[in-house]
Automatic annotation (TrEMBL):
<dbReference type="InterPro" id="IPR035892">
    <property type="entry name" value="C2_domain_sf"/>
</dbReference>
<dbReference type="InterPro" id="IPR000008">
    <property type="entry name" value="C2_dom"/>
</dbReference>
<feature type="domain" description="C2">
    <location>
        <begin position="7"/>
        <end position="125"/>
    </location>
</feature>
<dbReference type="Pfam" id="PF00168">
    <property type="entry name" value="C2"/>
</dbReference>
<dbReference type="GO" id="GO:0016020">
    <property type="term" value="C:membrane"/>
</dbReference>
<keyword id="KW-0106">Calcium</keyword>
<dbReference type="GO" id="GO:0005509">
    <property type="term" value="F:calcium ion binding"/>
</dbReference>
<protein>
    <recommendedName>
        <fullName>C2 domain-containing protein</fullName>
    </recommendedName>
</protein>
<keyword id="KW-0479">Metal-binding</keyword>
Length: 154
């Protein structure tokens, strides 16, 4: 996946309309293996979600695939620019396969509580295969923070 063109560069962005959000995808636990060998090849992607939708309107970041494990570690970090009108993101956990990747589950995160440049969310998010499931399919640990880029450059 090309991440280069999504990276935050030193350009003028209206800080009244946009935030720089930093996603640090640390690790995950897969509770139900999706491959016949009893393992998975997990990767995570994060997208923004409009408030009236269950699905991502755009994918923002995606990790590498960790092969043959139920406890992948990425320590993946990326900053993205997103509109202040976005108050929810989706975290999806997938298993990479040769032909068709297997969906493992997802979680929604309210990022409206990131009110200032020092606030952050540091949490193991339980992910669920289907809306309303009682048992989670796994956990993805992510630190989400509002970057100080704008306040530094202004
Ligand atoms: Ca696989």
């Amino acid at each position: 996946m090309e991440t280069k063109d999504k990276r935050v560069e030193q350009k003028k962005i209206d800080p009244t309309k946009y935030d720089v959000i930093s996603f640090n995808i640390l690790n995950a636990t897969v509770l139900e293996a999706t491959d016949p060998n009893g393992l998975s090849d997990p990767y995570v992607r994060i997208g923004k979600v409009k408030s009236d939708s269950l699905f991502a309107s755009r994918w923002l970041v995606e990790t590498e695939v960790q092969e043959k494990t139920l406890s992948p570690t990425w320590n993946y970090m990326e900053e993205v620019i997103i509109g202040k009108d976005i108050d929810r993101i989706i975290i999806e956990l997938w298993d990479k396969d040769t032909f068709r990747n297997d969906y493992i589950g997802r979680a929604y995160v309210d990022i409206s509580e990131l009110s200032d440049y020092k606030s952050f969310i540091n949490q193991g998010f339980k992910i669920y295969k289907n809306e309303g499931d009682k048992k989670e399919a796994g956990t993805v640990w992510v630190i989400i923070s509002k970057s100080a880029t704008f306040s530094d450059s202004s």
